[in-house]
Specification:
Layout: H1 7-19, E1 29-34, E2 41-43, E3 49-51, H2 65-73, E4 75-81, E5 86-91, E6 134-136, E7 141-147, E8 166-167, E9 173-179, H3 182-187, E10 193-195, H4 200-205, E11 211-221, E12 232-238, E13 240-241, E14 247-253, E15 256-264, E16 272-273, H5 276-283, E17 288-296, H6 306-309, E18 314-322, E19 338-345, E20 348-349, E21 352-353, E22 358-360, E23 363-366, E24 381-384, E25 389-397, E26 402-406, E27 430-432, E28 438-439, E29 448-449, E30 452-453, E31 458-459, E32 469-479, E33 486-494
Length: about 500
Amino acid sequence: MPAIVTNKFRVHNQEQFVESFSESGANVYYMMLGRPQPFATSTRPDARTENEGTDSAPIAPIDSVDDEFYTFDDAIAAKKITSSDVSIVIPRRNWTTGTTYDYYRHDYGRRITGGTSTQSANSGATNLFDATFFVVSSAYNVYKVLDNNAGAASTVEPTGTSTSTLTTGDGYKWKYMYTLSATQQANFLSTDFMAVATNSTVSSAAVNGALDIVKIKTAGSGYTVSGGATSGTITSVPIRGDGASGACTVTLSSGVITAVAITTAGTGYTYGYIRNADILSQGGGAGSGAELDVIIGPKGGHGSNAIKELGGFFVMLNTNFEGVESGSGSDVSAANDFRKIALIRDPQSGGGAASATTLRATKAIRFAASPTPGTFTVDEEINQATTGAVGKVVEYDSTNRILYYIQTRFNDEGADSNGNKTAFSTAAVVSGQDSSATGTPDTGFSSSVNGASFTGGYSSSELDNDTGDVMYIENRAPITRATDQTENVKLVVEF
């Protein structure tokens, strides 16, 4: 049975996702950074290996239970995504001179009259939202192409914000839709995507079922006007259909139809026809064979809802990691790089729903002042001989004598000699295997330092391990961080 899930369903899903950030009982989403250690081949406790590629060519994550758990193993930090960090977006198409753009058409993909071939755009697209029918100008105005001058190249950039159809010198006809605000440009404009929103002035001026364009499929032959002339105009030709008042002017040259212009847009059309009999009756002449396609606008009229009209089934999440996020103490390390980005929904912190702006995902040890601890280096293996605990250094804060670390499932990274993940505990000495540094946990210390809360010299992760739903995982080349640096993460979700 032939069936289809429409683009409107995609828009609906996008709307539900965006609403989930701000509605009553909203979900809570965090962008998480992880993987401070290089991608490599790691050894499992059962002596088998796992090849995760290299820093220059990491393997692709997979949608599996295993990858969801593993995402938490080497997490560094997470930052909450607010509703202001979310925007509906569409593909970015910069207006470029010399480009032949597609034009808006309501029936891409329909079978063409008299055959089995389908209506396609100049680009070959058989779906409106695969067609290149809108652009953004250098002034960040977004325009819809209503007519591409019979497939000619665009050479005049559209300008202006009139609610009427704009005609440029190259014969293109444009519909102004909206302008990207300064905030949208800063937060939701990337190389490939741009924010989309409905302009209230444009929306208010839109007329449901109004007609703008008629395309000539077949020009016909033998056309004349009253008196037998083969060139001239025929006015007030009615447009039939389920709307009202639509009319057009037909232009003849050497007996063929060369142009059709809407003179009265009418209202309420969901389909329309121009009959040959009406052309002849209004012109008082002869002719046959013309096929004219009346282009029907979207529900509500052009500009009534830019999101639906331009295919707004993409959502961009924009998150900035600003240095160490000083307002949150030591939550986001700037001493190490990261190679993994993940989107987490409804994680927990301290056994309850997470709500803090940032969450530290590493564990930490506070060393005693005496004996003086050594200087641990990032990414080195650490061991605690008495307990057998193993970990990887993410950062060492020598000023406060705090060692931040992770424990993964692999040998020399988190698994002990028995293949188990054993917690660091007690006052037993912790040793660095590359630096040869040592430190004695200060088991008498129970206080907070730089936002990290310690009990008996130890601090657990603020992000509860393996909680929430992992919605997105990306492995990438390493990103080096610094205290005076901001990493801007733009994640685009397509529905």
